[in-house]
Design a protein that fits this description.
Blueprint (H helix, E strand, L loop, with lengths): L2 H16 L7 H7 L4 H13 L3 E3 L6 E3 L1 H14 L1 H16 L2 E8 L2 E9 L21 H7 L4 H11 L15 H14 L2 E4 L6 E10 L4 E11 L5 H21 L2 H7 L12
Antiparallel strand pairs: 1-2, 3-4, 3-7, 5-6, 6-7
Helix pairs in contact: 1-3, 2-3, 5-9
């Protein structure tokens, strides 16, 4: 197997199994990735030998280990992102009393990397940071897509389809027409909104972080909480604080270091629409 193909297939396995905390059997991995079991076994053996995966002795299922996350945390630590952004996230969480999260643009999608919890009540929303971002069905996705050239934004969504994970509730965007309409609303409003789309009973708002003279979107800051508390009216109240936090992070943004971190990503100029 050529080196390039080897690397691609290893990454395919990592991305597939990472979404299955219960693990996957060799036959399942080979079938879903349309590859011979012998090849899948060879690649999984390499991952296990390096400590990035392990196999349960009883179930024979393969799982991705925390070593992969540890490597990612080392990269974040070296970039200085947490040191620079965390105080801003903490202040916004305190002011709003809700969950605040930071996501970075990376290779045509968004990755959650940091959070601050402002709610200390029993009614709080605090999802796992590792959850994938459905661009067309989340406030952060809409906020970022709205900064792109519209044709590029549509292409990104269509490439993955308009489907959503099973855990999602009732997405507003279900086709190209509704996506364009939602992006227009997002641009006019100044921030993305998701009300009981990703999860029943939860709402979120998000704004893109635009840096440099070209106003490049490098990430998003979001506020999320129970829908009964984070209403549209409350979102309007929070909008100035969210905008101030985004501006603060943009002013402090370590562009050179983070350009290296957000590797493989082609930044796009913010839409003038």
């Amino acid at each position: 197997m050529p080196l390039g193909d080897f690397v691609d297939r290893v990454m395919d396995i990592i991305e597939l199994v990472a979404d299955k905390p219960e693990g996957m059997k060799l036959s399942e991995i080979a079938q879903q990735l349309d590859m011979p079991k012998s090849a899948a076994h060879r690649l999984l053996t390499s991952l296990c030998q390096r400590g990035f995966a392990d196999q349960d002795e009883i179930s024979q299922r393969y799982r991705i280990t925390v070593k992969l996350a540890a490597v990612g945390l080392r990269v974040l630590s070296a970039s200085g992102t947490s040191d620079i952004c965390q105080p801003s996230l903490d202040r916004l969480a305190t002011r709003t009393g809700e969950l605040v999260r930071l996501a970075l643009v990376d290779a045509g999608t968004l990755l959650w990397i940091a959070k601050a919890q402002g709610s200390f009540s029993a009614l709080r929303y605090d999802p796992y940071l590792g959850n994938p971002v459905a661009l067309h069905a989340t406030s952060v996705g809409k906020a970022w897509l709205a900064t792109l050239d519209e044709e590029e934004a549509v292409s990104l969504v269509k490439a993955k389809g308009f489907g959503v994970p099973d855990s999602f509730s009732r997405p507003v965007v279900t086709d190209e027409a509704s996506l364009r309409a939602e992006l227009l609303k997002t641009r006019r409003r100044g921030y993305g909104v998701s009300i009981e789309e990703g999860e029943l009973g939860t709402s979120a708002m998000a704004q893109a972080i635009l840096v440099g003279r070209d106003r490049v979107a490098v990430g998003t800051v979001s506020i999320a909480g129970p829908a009964a508390r984070l209403t549209r009216a409350r979102m309007k109240e929070f909008a100035p604080d969210l905008a101030a936090t985004v501006s603060e992070i943009a002013d402090l943004w370590p562009s050179r270091q983070m350009a290296n971190f957000v590797s493989g990503n082609t930044f796009t100029r913010a839409s003038k629409a």
